[in-house]
Amino acid sequence: MKIAVLSRAPQAYSTQRLRAAALQRGHNVKVLNTLRFAIDLTADEPDLHYRGRQLSDYDAILPRIGNSITYFGTAVVRQFEQMDVYTPNTANGISSARDKLRANQILSRHNIAMPPTAFVRNRADVRPAIERVGGAPVVIKLLEGTQGIGVILAPQVKVAEAIIETLHSTKQNVLIQKFISESRGRDIRALVVGDRVVAAMRRSAAGDEFRSNVHRGGSVESVELDPIYERAAVRSAQIMGLRVAGVDMLEGEDGPLVMEVNSSPGLQGIEMATNLDVAGAIIDYIAGQVAFPEIDVRQRLTVSTGYGVAELLVHGAADLVGKTLGEAGLWERDITVLTLHRGVSVIPNPRKHVVLEPEDRLFCFGKLEEMRSMIPERRRRRAKVRRLPRQPLSE
Ligand SMILES: Nc1ncnc2c1ncn2[C@@H]1O[C@H](COP(=O)(O)OP(=O)(O)O)[C@@H](O)[C@H]1O
Ligand SMILES: [Mg+2]
Predict the structure, then answer these.
(1) If you take atom 7 of ligand 1, which residue's CA is the nearest one?
(2) Could you give the CA distance from residue 133 to residue 323 in angstroms, rounded to a whole number?
(3) 246 CA to centre of ligand 2 in angstroms
(4) Buried b / exposed e across 163-194, counting CB within 10 Å, b at 16+?
(5) What is residue 270's predicted lDDT score, i.e. its pLDDT?
(6) Which residues surround ligand 2, an ion (CB under 5 A)?
């Protein structure tokens, strides 16, 4: 394949390793400076220029977009997507991951455990927010910090309030997060490639520092990951739309707490700590995807008006339980069942003799009008248990 690594740092360890891994496998690889692209929307088809010349054909890109150029960098990645060039990390995934609040919001509806977090703007809402996440000591984070800069541990509520007020006065948005003390200045970095963790390390903060970032003096060691941590890492990366990601997790009392998902994880620390060829795993994965790309089903199938994809709940349509798929009459209603989800297993192209169970979910393509009646109800807000007002003992 012909692959471009988008990077502004051709000499950096990660870029060099990716380039070497691609060459070693016989691929044609170029390192292209993200800021030297020009997005061209003048012609009939989306196009890109590089250093003033029309870009040649590429099979894949691997974006390594630094924090300071998120907007331009993701615009370039999006342009490659429009040109049908494969990228393991989409523009959307990269920008969502970059913003700690946005990432938390996206992950929070998918049963991914995270440190309790709050986001407020009004001064009056600060103290209740600190209390909601568990009180002092509390962690305060700038939304787009990296390498531990912009992460502060406030020992008391008053100090936390003062810090937050100061940051707000300089127009900085901050997250308020529970300090996970049981993690003791340590965290786990899992390198996810595709649907597996290819390497993992534990980072430990230096001295009395609570931030374990290598840039803050943290040390690293290889670690054998518990499957629960692996699953949390892989699911988080997938939910964010990232096929190459560094997922950071704190070791909470009840298991992993996902802190962030990095879309351009550094390879030096993790390759040194584990002695594993992470760059090679990334290149192999991309080559596999180029040969047989995943397609965005929803986008591709929502082409003709009135048709689309939807997930149907069997128990939502009571008359389907106990029937076979054939008897359910879906094909007659112009609905094709692509997969049947039963518990943790998935049956692709299910046959008509399969008997439907109440908890089954059907992933279908068909007439939206026909499917509408069968689409699950919107998720309700979980009702918090409220204490009833105390009743007088006697009437
Ligand atoms: N809620 C928390 N509880 C305990 N330690 C934390 C918490 N949040 C962050 N840390 C520590 O601070 C480090 C940096 O935080 P992180 O959110 O990853 O910011 P950055 O993007 O700057 O790396 C983490 O690696 C971890 O060691
Ligand atoms: Mg981090």
Answers:
(1) 179
(2) 48
(3) 9
(4) bbeebbeeeebbbbbbbbeebebbbbbbbbbb
(5) 95
(6) 248
Query: Which of 196-205, 315-324, 360-369 has the least mean pLDDT?
Result: 315-324
Q: Which atom of ligand 1 is nearest to the CA of 186?
A: 27
Q: Ligand 1, atom 9: nearest CA belongs to which residue?
A: 211
What long-range pairs does 46-50 form, CB within 8 A, spacing at least 24? Answer: 46/79, 46/82, 46/83, 47/83, 48/76, 48/79, 48/80, 48/83
Which tens digit of pLDDT belongs to each residue from 87-99?
Answer: 999 999 999 999 9
CA 161 – ligand 1 centroid, Å: 19
pLDDT tens for each residue of 141-166: 998 788 889 999 999 999 999 999 99
Which atom number of ligand 1 is nearest to the Cα of residue 145? 22
Task: Answer whether 341's CB lies under 8 Å from 361's CB.
Answer: yes
Q: Using the atom order of ligand 1, give the atom closest to the CA of residue 212.
A: 27
Residues 366-389, buried b or exposed e (16+ Cβ, 10 A)? beeebbeebeeeeeeeeeeeeeee
CA of 368 to the centre of ligand 1 (A): 44
Domains and CATH numbers, the chain: 2-88 (3.40.50.20), 116-179 (3.30.1490.20), 183-291 (3.30.470.20), 297-372 (3.30.70.1450)
- H/E stretch holding 141: strand 138-142
For the entire predicted model, the pTM comes to 0.81
**Coil, strand or helix at 243:** coil
Cα 137 to ligand 2 centre (Å): 19
CA distance linking residue 2 with residue 40, whole number of Å: 21
Q: Is 210 in the pocket of ligand 1 (CB under 6 A)?
A: yes
For 6, left (φ over 0), alpha (ψ -120 to 50), or beta? beta
| pLDDT above 90: residue 381 | no
Alpha-carbon distance 5 to 15, whole Å? 7
